[in-house]
């Protein structure tokens, strides 16, 4: 595949067809060691007998990717969720631009293959550190859409590097942008697009990770459980979800960075301090839900639908 990237093919233990999915979908994987991780599906959605996921081994991660690389082998049985899709293709788009950074290629590869299959105009720009670290390079080169795919290497010649200002000049309302990759890469793509007049309706993105949650300068607040009226204090050095767990309130989590949405909880009263990368700006402004793994409170108390 590529340096530190492994491709996993998953099939049902009974040989039956797997639940259907669309381009942009992901599954939750219970990795060896008990961590739940989200991985994008990167095979053809028409192939109902298998799922493919590509995983980058992260030495400084929390261990999920290492466990998959070092423990899972042919014949291993693992538990997964049904596919979920928070990053779908927009049916209203007249043409599409896909920007992938590193392992962020996985959902965009599936999108590119789907767009090619329905003869939808698009271009794929895939940015990596080097050719050796470019997953699916041979698959893209052999594809029917190879002429629409552009690879950009950090260690390559200057003229092949992605010029975001040029590539993201103002576009008509019918053009949609999709991006996935490291946070710094996505911040650059999205800020350039917004600066060039792209509207939020034209921008579609999915973060894989965020900066570690920092609590050093945070104040305390309270959480009230709507079901019982019970009040749980959240200390300055605690996340809301850890405070809830300490009091025996189980909130499902996965990434614990505000990226995946697993812990999304309804807010019935109070004002959250949103620090996630999952909710849209409009969803955050509504203040009726938040992610307790990373977000806090601007008000002294939040009443949660728990």
Automatic annotation (TrEMBL):
- The protein depicted here goes by the name Flavodoxin reductases (Ferredoxin-NADPH reductases) family 1, Vanillate O-demethylase oxidoreductase
Q: Which PROSITE patterns match?
A: 2FE2S_FER_1, 2FE2S_FER_2, FAD_FR
Could you read off the lineage of the organism from its UniProt record? Bacteria, Pseudomonadati, Pseudomonadota, Betaproteobacteria, Burkholderiales
Spell out the PANTHER family in the cross-references: CARNITINE MONOOXYGENASE REDUCTASE SUBUNIT (PTHR47354:SF1), NADH OXIDOREDUCTASE HCR (PTHR47354)
Recorded source organism is Caballeronia sordidicola (Burkholderia sordidicola)
Q: Which residues form the FAD-binding FR-type domain?
A: 1-90
Keyword Iron assigned: yes
Q: Which residues form the signal peptide?
A: none
Cofactor dependence is on: FMN
């Amino acid at each position: 595949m590529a340096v530190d990237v492994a491709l996993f093919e998953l099939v049902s233990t009974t040989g039956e067809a797997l639940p259907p999915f669309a381009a942009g979908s992901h599954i939750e994987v219970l990795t060896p060691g008990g961590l739940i991780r989200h991985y994008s599906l990167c095979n053809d959605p028409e192939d109902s007998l298998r799922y493919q996921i590509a995983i980058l081994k992260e030495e400084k991660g929390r261990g999920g990717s290492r466990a998959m690389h070092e423990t899972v082998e042919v014949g291993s049985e693992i538990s997964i969720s049904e596919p979920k899709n928070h990053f779908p293709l927009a049916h209203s788009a007249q043409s599409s631009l896909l920007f992938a950074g590193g392992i962020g290629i996985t959902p965009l590869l599936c999108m590119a293959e789907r767009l090619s299959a329905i003869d939808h105009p698009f271009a794929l720009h895939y940015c990596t550190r080097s050719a050796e670290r470019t997953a699916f390079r041979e698959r893209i080169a052999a594809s029917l859409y190879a002429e629409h795919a552009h690879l950009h290497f950090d260690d390559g010649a200057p003229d092949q590097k992605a010029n975001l200002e040029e590539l993201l000049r103002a576009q008509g309302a019918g053009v949609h942008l999709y991006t996935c990759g490291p946070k710094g890469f996505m911040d650059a793509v999205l800020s350039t697009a917004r600066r060039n007049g792209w509207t939020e309706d034209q921008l579609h993105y999915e973060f894989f990770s965020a900066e570690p949650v920092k609590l050093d300068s945070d104040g305390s607040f309270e959480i009230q459980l709507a079901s019982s009226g019970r009040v749980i204090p959240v200390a300055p050095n605690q996340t809301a979800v850890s405070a809830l767990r300490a009091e025996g309130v189980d909130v499902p989590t996965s990434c614990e960075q505000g990226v995946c949405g697993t812990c999304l909880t309804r807010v019935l009263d109070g004002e959250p301090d949103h620090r996630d990368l999952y909710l849209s700006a409009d969803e955050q402004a509504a203040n009726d839900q938040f992610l307790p793994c990373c977000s806090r409170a601007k008000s002294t108390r939040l009443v949660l639908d728990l």
